[in-house]
Design brief:
Layout: H1 6-22, E1 27-30, H2 33-40, E2 45-51, E3 57-62, H3 64-70, E4 76-78, H4 85-91, E5 99-102, H5 109-118, E6 123-126, H6 128-136, H7 140-157, H8 170-183, E7 202-206, E8 244-252, E9 255-265, H9 270-289, H10 296-309, E10 326-330, E11 337-342, E12 354-357, E13 360-363, E14 367-370, E15 373-378, E16 381-384, E17 393-395
């Protein structure tokens, strides 16, 4: 079993404790799965308490034995119930807490109300942005996980052309690709932080379905197989001379490589091929400019300006009211991490950031062409973490 090294966890908690002190907080309780995994090393149900100074403790409701095995911290203890939380914290020396941080972007209201009852007089503050900004900068350990996820993406991508057949339903192609990923160790879920945001392995869409928007904050979505899950591959059948988009997340150790490639059965029409060339050109222009201290908002403006000058601004990252105002997003344990390469973004690129860059063009009734790769910000520029070739792949009729 892969366990996050204690040195890695200590570094993460140390950065968090510095932020707690900056915000005059006595500590924070973490409950959300991704935050638990990142700071405690385990997603078992419980409360990870990080004091502003000193060692954290992990109080586990279920499953204590697994938490002991999965977390590298020594301070892992069983907790019989929610109401015992204040007394157990006090037993471990955490008695004089006046201000505490919480993940208020994702914490259910009912749990928040119970905390108010259990800790009368304590002031609770939202620490969600702090947590996301800490996770925005990846360590060498995390970059290694992402590189290994990239290797998986490459291995699977190489097998996709052999699966493409006119008349095959999108959902059947999806199942075949997902089977390859599961054999490679895919965990079977892509985590997202935003409320009501959800995703399975990713999306497959062909032809007009590539321009079929969904509730997801994305320029693509696909029809899905039912209104109960209106995204991803549907029952539409693959056809010649139309773009087939494969937008998937390869995973290693929880870390996601989000990548999109375009395939076709027979040649695409010339205007779609030209739009694909423009998308790759936008990627290359952004990559050339993306160094530490560059504004993420400025990078978005650069991408949009190129699309406008090539006469494709109205198709860039969607159409009409469904057009999204970003061209990239942070990536790591969740798909929707910081920074956002989008309109008005205040984040500046910094060494250690990782983001997915996805310039895409949507053509109603015809589909999507574009590309998506994951990039690591280094002192000298960007390192590509998704080693798949950027070429559009055409298989013969």
């Amino acid at each position: 079993m892969d366990v996050t090294p204690l040195t890695e966890l200590k570094g993460r908690v140390g950065r968090l404790q510095g932020k707690l002190q900056d915000h005059a907080l006595d500590g924070t309780i973490l409950m959300e799965n991704t935050d638990l995994y990142y700071f405690a090393g385990s997603i078992q149900q419980g409360f990870f308490f990080v004091p502003a100074a000193g060692d954290p403790i992990f109080l586990v409701k279920r499953n204590y034995e697994r938490a002991r095995d999965e977390s590298s911290w020594d301070g892992v203890y069983p907790l019989s119930g929610f109401k015992e939380l204040p007394s157990v914290l006090a037993e471990h020396g955490f008695k004089d807490i006046k201000k505490m941080g919480l993940e208020l972007d994702v914490l259910p209201v009912n749990i928040y109300r119970r905390l108010l009852e259990l800790f009368p007089g304590i002031e609770f503050n939202d620490i969600s942005t702090v947590l996301r900004e800490i996770r925005m900068i990846k360590s060498n350990y995390e970059i290694d996980c992402l590189r290994r996820a990239g290797d998986v993406a490459l291995a699977v991508n190489r097998q996709i052309p052999a699966l493409l057949q006119a008349g095959k339903a999108e959902v059947h192609l999806s199942a075949e690709i997902e089977n390859l990923y599961r054999f490679a160790g895919h965990q079977g879920v892509l985590r997202m932080r935003a409320f009501n945001a959800e995703m399975f392995f990713g999306h497959v869409y062909s032809g007009a379905n590539g321009a079929f928007h969904s509730f997801a904050d994305s320029c693509t979505g696909g029809s899905g197989v039912a209104t109960a899950c209106p995204q991803g591959g549907g029952w539409k059948k693959l056809a010649p001379h139309e773009p087939i988009g494969v937008d998937y997340g390869a995973i290693y150790g929880g870390y996601i490589i989000d990548h999109t490639r375009i395939f076709s059965i027979g040649e695409l029409p010339g205007d779609l091929l030209e739009a694909y060339t423009v998308a790759v050109g936008i990627q290359d222009a952004v990559v050339e400019q993306a160094i530490p201290e560059v504004s993420c908002g400025d990078l978005y403006n650069l991408a949009l300006d190129i699309a406008d000058k090539r006469g494709l601004g109205n198709n860039f990252m969607g159409c009409g009211p469904e057009q999204v105002k970003f061209v990239g997003h942070g990536i790591g344990l969740e798909i929707d991490e910081l920074p956002v390469i989008g309109k008005g973004s205040q984040h500046m690129l910094a060494e250690g950031m990782v983001f997915a860059l996805e310039p895409k063009f949507i053509f109603p009734g015809r589909g999507m062409v574009g590309i998506e790769n994951v990039w690591h910000v280094t002192a000298k520029g960007l390192e590509k973490l998704s080693p798949i070739p950027d070429d559009l792949v055409t298989v013969p009729l």
